[in-house]
From TrEMBL:
Domain of life: Eukaryota
InterPro entries per UniProt: DYW_dom, E_motif, PPR_At4g14850-like_plant, PPR_rpt, TPR-like_helical_dom_sf
Molecular function GO labels: RNA binding; zinc ion binding
Domain DYW: from-to ranges: 801-893
Pfam family, one: DYW_deaminase
Keyword check for Kinase: no
Family, similarity comment: Belongs to the PPR family. PCMP-H subfamily.
This protein's UniProt keywords: Repeat
Keyword Repeat set for record: yes
GO terms, biological process: RNA modification
PPR repeats: 196-230, 297-331, 415-449, 450-484, 485-519, 586-620
Official protein name in the record: DYW domain-containing protein
């Protein structure tokens, strides 16, 4: 079965980075994050000479990069003054670069006073700074307590009638608050004409820091009438103030605000509401607020439990502790709360001991365990079967089978739960012999295995790809007079999906129904996820029909899985229909729908959905921003990309992950801002991974930039030396520059490293059959007819202007040979077969395991035009939707 899941960058060719870039003797230089475009620099004088040369040079496009490396050169030689000058009089910068400069400066041992000295010198000479530079200067003034310089900057701004932007204004407020007290800060605020959200929040926080509680609450009221939005941080602090002040009415008002603006999904806000009510001695209101919170994290459990404990409701606190434990609360918290309750006079029983013990094992802190063990001994609880069962269970969950065995064999009067725990531990690990042995032992001791016992065997066999043995267990269940239930069958199905055995999964699905076992939502979701992951849209549609007939569509998980499947399959209209029909849309529904639009380059639709979602009060998470940024990336919307990237942290306090950075690099690179993309990578706090460098390399192919391509390839081949796709991409770039020597060297290095070129395949589903076209193995039985049709197609589209792109073949052979190679590309064959076998009007859906080549991409565009067909092609990197001679990727891939 061909549909193996693959990540975009996981397919390719291998050798060391040194071999790629230069001769085999070349030893890789030590890389600082900033590369040196001018080779190695050994002395400060050579830095200065180089700098002089650059200044004399006519303007070149990668000035930002040059500034960056000059700045770094100066820093490395300890010339902090020159480094600062480069930065101050350098070129367009943003806050990101400023912050990274300050960090670099400090990491080389620079003293921030020097930055201020340089600033003063330039300022006296009459150099004008932009608001970004001034903001940074003010921030340094604040940190170094240079109040007078800060005031001078302010006076100068006023004199010049300088437009004070929000950041500058905030920096001023913070400075004044610290040195002249809150009144000075309030004055700056009142004098700022543009009172944006950010500024309101700053001033409220400043007043709270200065313990001006009433003033802060008053400002919050004014802020609301100005329709400014309070950040989560501000709301939390205000609520804390209401707790401290015992200001119940104000607290209730803020609670109202939180409800009105849909901020209830924020756990830290909810926790503050709980504490606020508790501090106002309104335990019942605290409990209501707690119960209405969707996700309880450890802080929320802490706040409610301590509310009960503080208000002398120990039993209530204990009940909550139990609830917390069973809902998966953190063990540390269970223990902390356990101890504090004990010291408050609570006497634990066998049940509470179990919770505490589970916490100890969960934490793996066996010293703490001794403490509790001592208690067990004193309380004569040692042989309590429940304590032991939970111990066995927890050891297994913590991957300590041997410890679980010890406890198990020392337990007297074991109940069936204990037996089942250990058996499932064995099957999960694939230790089927041990499991069977235990099963026999269990029977000898007179305990009859139940369905739970058998199902753990079914699941174990099925997950390790041994579906025949799993089926044998199903038959064993039947022979014992028991009936396999939905759990047994779902285990069968999910094991098959896990092992990409989709046909068997479907087979078991129908067998289960024949045996009158009703599937549940987990069964359906498992199948739908498998269809989405492998682009099996036809089967997915059948399961959709099934869910409709059996009334599963109200199930939110199934609806979400449907959106995901149709979205990935390019049936956006159907996805949207499912989406629209959901009454209470959850965050995953929104995310899946946005992602569906994003992958096919419908950026605007993603943004519209995002706005709609915010209006309904659903709060975005990191996945939402991945969808937004992917939307920008696939539609080439650079400005929107920056907007969402910035908003993520400032408005929602979500830290960007490597995925988000990778989207941004891809976006900048594809749009042709390769230097900016490099700058961005240097400013990323995490180490750039293969997805980031892969995006740069692909962008270099698009914009034919061989210099940056070599930098990207060097990094990429260091991170993924065995990924042949990277080599293929670099060879492609070399071949467009006719650098066949380099292509050959790459190939040799691949051979030397033993990098395998994977089998390339494309497939298409026609009716119930999947037709695979592969570079290896058997050829398709109708190959002759397919080629005949393909040649006709090609001559047809040549009349429309199509020209074969022989640059896509990186073999140094003559052009007619290259043409032959191009025509044998698997995606061309699959598309042609689709045209032959499907009716006009129905879209063609092809899946390919590696990146589509330039020529096939062009061919697909022309075919969509000539034959008036939609073509969906999912390749190793992304999704393409061809229609009327164009592709949804707008030729950026
Ligand atoms: Zn091709
Ligand atoms: Zn495309």
């Amino acid at each position: 079965m061909p549909p193996r899941s693959h990540s975009p960058s996981s397919i390719s060719l291998g050798m060391s980075e040194a071999q790629l870039v230069s001769s085999p003797q070349f030893s890789p230089p030590k890389f600082s994050p900033f590369f040196h475009p001018f080779g190695e620099i050994r002395t400060l004088n050579s830095v200065r000479e180089l700098h002089a040369q650059i200044i004399k040079m006519p303007k070149k496009r990668n000035l930002v990069t040059m500034d960056g490396s000059m700045m770094r050169n100066y820093l490395q030689f300890g010339d902090f003054e020159s480094a600062t000058k480069v930065f101050f009089v350098g070129f367009a910068r943003n806050y990101l670069l400023w912050n990274s400069f300050i960090e670099e400066f400090a990491s080389f041992g620079g003293d921030s006073h020097e930055i201020l000295a340089v600033f003063k010198e330039l300022h006296d000479k009459g150099v004008k700074f932009d608001s970004k530079a001034l903001t940074v200067v003010l921030k340094i003034c604040l940190a170094l307590m240079e109040l007078w310089l800060g005031m001078e900057v302010h006076a100068c701004l006023v004199k010049r009638g300088f437009h004070v932007d929000v950041h500058l204004s905030c920096a001023l407020i913070n400075l004044y608050e610290k040195y002249l007290g809150i009144d000075g800060a309030n004055q700056v605020f009142d004098e700022t004409p543009l009172q944006e959200d950010f500024l309101w929040n700053t001033i409220v926080m400043a007043n709270l820091r200065s313990e001006k509680w009433e003033d802060a609450l008053e400002l919050f009221r004014r802020m609301q009438s100005a329709s400014a939005k309070a950040t989560d941080g501000t709301i939390v602090k205000l609520l804390q103030a209401c707790g401290k002040l015992r200001a119940l009415n104000e607290g209730k008002q803020i609670h109202g605000y939180v409800i009105r603006f849909g901020r209830v999904s924020n756990t830290s806000i909810c926790n503050s509401i709980v504490s606020m009510y508790s501090r106002n001695n309104r335990l019942e209101l605290a409990r209501v607020a707690f119960d209405s919170t969707e996700d309880h994290n450890s802080a929320s459990w802490n706040s409610i439990i301590s509310s009960y404990a503080v208000n002398d409701c120990l039993n209530g606190a204990w009940d909550l502790l139990q609830e917390m434990e069973s809902s998966g609360g953190s063990y540390e918290n269970v223990l902390t709360n356990f101890r504090s309750l004990q010291s408050a006079g609570f006497k634990p029983d066998s049940c509470s001991i179990t919770s505490a013990l589970q916490a100890v094992i969960g934490l793996g802190c066996f010293n703490l365990g001794k403490e509790i063990h001592g208690y067990i001994m004193r309380s004569k609880l040692e042989y309590d079967v429940y304590v032991c069962t939970s111990l066995v269970d927890k050891y297994i969950k913590n991957d300590c089978l041997d410890k679980a065995e010890v406890v198990f064999h020392h337990t007297k009067n074991k109940n069936i739960c204990a037996w089942n725990s250990l058996i499932s531990g064995y099957t999960y690990k694939g230790l089927f012999d041990n499991a069977e042995k235990l099963l026999n032992q269990m029977k000898e001791e007179g305990i009859k295995p139940d369905l739970v016992t058998w199902n753990s065997l079914v699941s174990g066999y099925s997950m390790s790809g041994r579906s025949e043995e799993a089926l044998a267990v199903i038959n064993r269940i039947k022979s014992l007079g028991l009936t396999p239930n939905v759990v047994s069958w779902t285990a069968m199905i999910s094991g098959c999906c896990q092992n990409e055995n989709y046909m068997d999964a479907l087979q078991f699905f129908s067998q289960m129904q024949e045996e009158n076992v009703k599937p549940n939502s987990t069964t359906i979701c498992t199948l739908l996820r498998a269809c989405a992951g492998s682009s099996l849209l036809k089967i997915g549609e059948e399961i959709h029909c099934f869910s409709m007939r059996h009334g599963f569509l109200d199930d939110i998980y199934i609806a979400t899985a449907l959106i995901d499947m149709y979205g990935k399959g390019g049936k956006l209209k159907v996805a949207h229909e499912v989406f629209r029909n959901i009454k209470e849309k959850t965050l995953p529904c929104w995310n899946c729908m946005m992602m569906g639009y994003a992958i096919y380059g419908h950026g605007e639709e993603v943004f519209t959905l995002f706005d709609e979602m915010r209006k309904t009060g659903v709060r975005p998470d990191a996945i939402t921003f991945t969808a937004l940024l992917s939307g920008c990336k696939n539609s080439g919307l650079v400005m929107d990309g920056w907007k969402y990237f910035d908003s993520m942290k400032t408005d929602y306090n979500i830290n960007p992950t490597i995925e988000h950075y990778s989207c941004m690099v891809d976006l900048l690179g594809k749009a042709g801002f390769l230097d900016e993309a490099l700058d961005f990578i240097h400013a990323v706090p995490q180490k750039a991974d293969a997805s980031i460098w892969g995006a740069v390399l692909a962008a270099c192919r698009l914009h034919k930039d061989i210099k940056i391509a070599e930098i990207a390839a060097r990094n990429l081949l260091r991170l993924e030396p065995y990924n042949s796709a990277n080599y293929a991409l670099m060879m492609n770039i070399y071949s467009t520059f006719d650098r066949w020597g380099d292509v050959e060297r790459l190939k040799e290095s691949m051979t030397a490293l033993g990098v395998k070129i994977p089998n390339v395949w494309s497939w298409i589903q026609v009716k119930q059959t999947i037709h695979v076209f592969s570079t290896e193995g058997k050829s398709h039985p109708e190959e002759g007819e397919i080629y005949f049709e393909l040649y006709q197609l090609i001559s047809e589209i040549k009349k429309l202007g199509y020209v074969l792109d022989i640059n896509c073949v990186h073999q140094n052979i003559d052009d007619s040979e290259k043409e032959k190679v191009l025509l044998s590309h698997t995606e061309k064959l699959a598309m042609t077969y689709g045209l032959m076998k499907t009716k006009g009007g129905s879209p063609i859906r092809v899946v390919k395991n590696t990146r589509i080549c330039h020529d096939c991409h062009t061919t697909a565009k022309y075919i969509s035009l000539a034959r008036n067909r939609e073509i969906f092609l999912r390749d190793g990197g992304r999704f393409h939707h061809f229609m009327n001679g164009e592709c949804s990727c707008k030729d950026r891939w």
